[in-house]
């Protein structure tokens, strides 16, 4: 009760130099990051954002290269082996054209979490490791949205496309409608590739290999402890949450243009549920933020709905006989925006209301655990005294507010 009331009273909007945050698990606290001064933190974050900017622009040549090797017809002109492959092994050529782009792009994006976590670990001080995972989720999702979901509409140059849209923003629906429907087969191959990725992660090959290695020198229990945890960059909760949001956004975006992707998406998430249910049982328990990753996923999916409405508006504008169907589709923006704002402002999920806290505290037993070996703030009431919590908080503010 006292913690919930203090969290509500010590609001960051009060501007009185006191802020209350939900504490992380003690073993998750990054003490060296808490010692960073505000001036140094601002400088580090500025450098970090610059490196993220360079990473974003530097990843485009990788995507262009993947597009160039995805079709054997473009490779046979320069490499005679691929011409022989097309003529003598047409089955292999068909598999290459169908799966290589999805496979190569999946491998390329799997390297991004490691690079982003390297930047976050050195330039973005956080109070706990789980906060870095949440930052990874947010930024990784931005990369995925651009370089997987929007890559077909962006083309080979993000800068050129962005400059064109800044000059003529109303061309966005037409740009999406002219490019994205042509790439539905790519996403029909991309979804099964994600099923294969989920199945591979369920094998936990890295942990098995490490266990076999350490088993040669230690007993089974020690070998198991040394083989855990798994890679927290690609298989951490932040990276997994970002990929799940991207996959659902992809299915929702193309569900009308290619209804088959809805069936593939259903099977993909069935496999995901099976694999993650297994991993929750065998992996070590990780720290969480109490639903922050889940809420961030829901927000990203709702942002994906804006893209869906924009895409369908452009498709109907190009293929309908008049502007009426596209105008009706465009009005969906109002409902999607209202739903997004309502979700962010009206749903109180971070903490309980004061009335609910008081009601629950009244139903709890009156006995308290022993306070031995616990730190007690000197300004707070000693055991046996009973001033109100509001008076204690007021005392703390008056002593800490030196201005």
Radius of gyration: 26 Å
Poorly predicted runs of 5 or more residues: none
| Beta-strand share of residues | under 5%
Number of strands: 0
Distance between termini? 30 Å
* Average pLDDT taken over every residue: 78
Order of helices and strands: HHHHHHHHHHHHHHHHHHHHHH
Major sheet details: none
Number of helices: 22
The structure class reads mainly alpha
Helix content: over 70%
Shape: globular
Could you characterize what this model shows?
The chain has helices spanning 2-9, 31-34, 38-58, 60-69, 72-75, 80-88, 90-110, 112-123, 129-149, 151-154, 158-167, 172-179, 184-203, 205-215, 220-226, 237-254, 260-282, 292-319, 324-330, 332-346, 354-363, 389-400. The chain has 403 residues and is mainly α. The longest helix is centred in the C-terminal third of the chain and has 28 residues, at 292-319. The relative contact order is 0.10.
List the SSEs and their pairings:
Layout: H1 2-9, H2 31-34, H3 38-58, H4 60-69, H5 72-75, H6 80-88, H7 90-110, H8 112-123, H9 129-149, H10 151-154, H11 158-167, H12 172-179, H13 184-203, H14 205-215, H15 220-226, H16 237-254, H17 260-282, H18 292-319, H19 324-330, H20 332-346, H21 354-363, H22 389-400
């Amino acid at each position: 009760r006292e913690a919930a009331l203090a969290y509500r009273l010590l609001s960051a909007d009060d501007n009185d130099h006191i802020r209350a945050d939900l504490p992380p698990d003690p073993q998750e606290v990054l003490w060296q990051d808490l010692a960073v001064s505000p001036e140094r933190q601002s400088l580090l974050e500025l450098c970090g954002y610059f490196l993220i900017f360079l990473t974003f622009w530097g990843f485009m040549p990788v995507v262009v290269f993947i597009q160039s090797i995805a079709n054997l017809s473009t490779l046979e002109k320069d490499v005679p082996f691929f011409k022989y492959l097309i003529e003598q092994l047409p089955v292999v050529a068909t598999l290459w054209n169908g799966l290589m782009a999805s496979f190569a792009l999946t491998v390329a994006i799997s390297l991004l979490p490691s690079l982003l976590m390297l930047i976050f670990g050195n330039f973005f001080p956080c109070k706990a490791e789980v906060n870095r995972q949440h930052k990874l989720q947010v930024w990784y999702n931005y990369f995925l949205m651009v370089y997987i979901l929007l890559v077909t509409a962006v083309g080979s140059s993000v800068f050129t496309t962005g400059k064109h849209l800044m000059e003529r923003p109303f061309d966005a629906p037409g740009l999406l409608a002219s490019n994205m429907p042509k790439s539905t087969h790519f996403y029909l191959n991309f979804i099964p590739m994600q099923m294969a990725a989920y199945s591979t992660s369920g094998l936990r090959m890295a942990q098995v290999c490490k266990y076999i290695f350490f088993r040669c020198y230690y007993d089974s229990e020690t070998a198991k402890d040394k083989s855990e945890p798994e890679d927290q960059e690609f298989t951490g909760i932040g990276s997994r949450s970002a990929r799940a949001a991207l996959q659902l956004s992809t299915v929702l975006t193309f569900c009308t243009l290619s209804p088959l992707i809805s069936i593939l998406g259903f099977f993909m998430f069935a496999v995901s549920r099976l694999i993650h249910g297994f991993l929750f049982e065998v992996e070590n328990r990780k720290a969480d933020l109490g639903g922050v990753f889940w809420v961030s996923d829901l927000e990203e999916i709702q942002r994906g709905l804006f893209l869906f409405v924009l895409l369908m508006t452009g498709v109907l504008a190009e293929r309908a006989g008049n502007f009426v169907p596209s105008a009706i589709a465009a009005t969906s923006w109002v409902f999607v925006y209202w739903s997004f704002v309502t979700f962010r402002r009206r749903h109180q999920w971070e903490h309980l209301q004061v009335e609910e806290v008081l009601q629950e505290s009244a139903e709890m037993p009156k006995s308290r655990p022993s306070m031995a070996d616990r730190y007690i703030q000197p300004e707070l009431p000693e055991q046996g005294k009973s001033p109100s919590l509001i008076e204690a908080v007021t005392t703390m503010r008056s002593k800490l507010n030196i201005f």
